[in-house]
Amino acid sequence: MTNLYIDFDGVxxxxxxxxxxxxxxxxxxxxxxxYQEFYKNLDWIEILSKSKPINxxxxxxxxxxxxxxxNVAILTHVNSISEIEEKVKMIRxxxxxxxxxxxxxxxxxxxxxxxxxxVLVDDYVGNLDEWKDAGGYGIKFDLDMDGKGYPVIxxxxxxxxxxx
Length: 164
Prior knowledge:
Blueprint (H helix, E strand, L loop, with lengths): L1 E5 L8 H11 L6 H9 L3 H7 L6 H10 L3 E9 L2 H14 L4 E6 L4 H4 L6 E4 L2 H9 L3 E5 L10 E2 L5 H4 L2
Parallel strand pairs: 1-2, 1-4, 2-3, 4-5, 5-6
């Protein structure tokens, strides 16, 4: 059975867009350090309460799990303990037993998980490049269907047929 890792922000929910809007309102973003501090101190209850599922992501995840084709886990970069707590609470409202793997932002996802032979669905090409270099198979999640050299999807449940 294939190990399938799915990113959270920008794939399952639109929390990236929500956080960017808040950063813009607060005039954040002049330096990397400002952004880093901004994300460490974000109110993740607020962010996730304003975040919407992307293209029926919760239902799509259920279809993927019900296919019994994959060992499914959510692999998500995090900036703080509060971010982990709130993401876990949100995910547990939908799935009681899916594996959730929080990865500190300063660490590559490939340093946490053996990528070789596994699939990663992510919206960030940098993560996909590292995954590919570590022997994994990357799929770009992009609503504009711009794969940037990777197979691309804009809806998670297409994986059931795509990865036969």
